[in-house]
Design goal:
two-stranded antiparallel sheet, 2 strands, 65% helix, globular
Length: 81
Amino acid sequence: MARKSPDEMATVLAQAFANFTMLAEHSLLPTQTKMATRLAGNCLWALGVEEYGGFHAIEPEPIGEIIDGQVALRAIGEAEG
């Protein structure tokens, strides 16, 4: 699969932000609200937007510190290689 353009990646991040905000605002459990709010903030951070609609940018935790994340990084590298 070809690497996506910055505009395509920004579109996906903006769509993910919209979905996470909807989940945060209409979740049934506090844990769902917390998770969706954090993920919406990660999307804003990746888009370079400090704040939007009451949500604030949150820098994501490094993925390499997560066991599953290390597996995902290895799989991504193999797919690109």
